[in-house]
């Protein structure tokens, strides 16, 4: 199953990048470069979604449209794609 959630990144005063998912509570990532932060965000989102799907009653949030995101000057939005493979007995 494929999930695509927007993540908002910004450059810090130290020159690194931080990002977060407005739709995935407490899901964030950092990196020395934007590409590294995006890669780390993909891992964080994969972990977040996998954990949510392991719950007895998963509650994945709706995906906010990029046009509706609360952006600040300098923010960069990337759509983070997460592929989760379901195997027989994955929910046992």
What can you tell me about this protein's structure?
- The mean pLDDT is 92.
- The chain is built from one helix and four strands.
- It is α+β, with helices and mostly antiparallel strands.
- Strand 2 and strand 3 form a beta hairpin.
- A four-stranded antiparallel β-sheet has the order 3-2-1-4, with helices on one face.
- The protein has one domain (2-83): Double Stranded RNA Binding Domain (2-Layer Sandwich).
Brief rundown of the structure:
The protein has one helix spanning 34-54; strands at 2-11, 17-20, 28-31, 76-83. It is α+β, with helices and mostly antiparallel strands and 92 residues long. The longest helix has 21 residues, at 34-54.
Write the layout of secondary structure elements.
Blueprint: E1 2-11, E2 17-20, E3 28-31, H1 34-54, E4 76-83
Antiparallel strand pairs: 1-2, 1-4, 2-3
Keywords:
alpha+beta, about 90 residues, 4 strands, Double Stranded RNA Binding Domain
